[in-house]
Write a structure and sequence with these properties.
about 240 residues, about 20% strand, BCD1_alpha/beta, Box C/D snoRNA protein 1, 10 strands, 6-stranded mixed beta sheet, 8 helices, zinc, alpha+beta, two-stranded antiparallel sheet, Ubiquitin-like (UB roll)
Length: about 240
């Protein structure tokens, strides 16, 4: 037994493969290692150790995934008239602004995350927005961003040396220390081949709505904030 080192082991944990002699030692090892005792179905198995049991396990895992996705797709809320009407309205309003907004099926992460709304009284979008700072491996999610707000104002709390939050400023130090003229805002162009990834360069002085016009958006905009001197494989359309 790898817990008490006294008795002969009788059990082996499916999760961490630790040997135990009794229920008491099983509970102790779970507490000590924060182990839930559930086998990791996605754990790596080398080709040399791969057996028919592993193949069967993978097959059953894929079946479980299929059943879960199917159950989510059949959920009554997904197909309710209110949900469909809301999505149709959102896409229709975006089309009126010369934006091709596409929504994903239920179950996709972006579909769950998206909190974009359209205010009919103000005739304005409030976007769910994701900012990615690749040089610092940082991501930030913004909710309820008005479409008339400029990109420069959106980025001020993150990369402005004076107005940014001290904690964020420290994490994005490479951006705050660089001149503003070196900062570039890019958005990936959708519906292109994987081997031909291109980006649109956005104008920081213009509003979010103006920058999104004429573009395809899947669920919500994702903006990449890069430095021109460090940008490597992110090719802007036309270059």
């Amino acid at each position: 037994c790898e817990t008490c080192s006294k008795e002969e082991a009788k059990y082996r944990c499916p999760r961490c493969m630790k040997y135990s002699c009794s229920l008491l030692c099983v509970k102790k090892h779970k507490l000590a290692l924060s182990c839930n005792g559930v086998r990791d179905k996605t754990a790596f198995v080398s080709v040399n150790e791969f057996t028919d049991l592993n193949l069967l396990s993978d097959y059953r895992f894929l079946e479980d995934v299929g059943r879960t996705a199917d159950a989510a797709a059949r959920h009554c809320i997904v197909h309710s008239p209110a949900t469909k009407r809301l999505l149709y309205c959102l896409r229709n309003k975006a089309r009126g602004c010369n934006i091709e907004l596409k929504t994903l099926p239920v179950g996709f992460t972006k579909r769950k995350e998206n909190s974009t709304t359209f205010n009919s009284m103000e005739n304005k979008f409030y976007w769910h927005l994701k900012l990615i700072f690749p040089h610092c491996h940082a991501e930030y999610t913004l909710k309820g961003v008005p479409d008339d707000k400029t990109l420069a104002d959106i980025l001020k709390p993150y990369i402005d040396p004076v107005e940014s939050d001290p904690v964020v400023c420290q994490r994005l130090k490479i951006y705050t220390a660089s001149p503003q003229s070196d900062v570039q805002i890019l958005m990936k162009i959708e519906n292109r081949n994987r081997n031909s990834v291109r980006y649109n360069e956005l104008d920081a002085s213009r509003s979010l709505l103006d920058n999104l016009k004429g573009k395809v958006i899947i669920e919500y905009p994702t903006l990449f904030v890069v430095l021109k001197t460090l940008k490597n494989d992110m090719v802007v359309l036309g270059q």
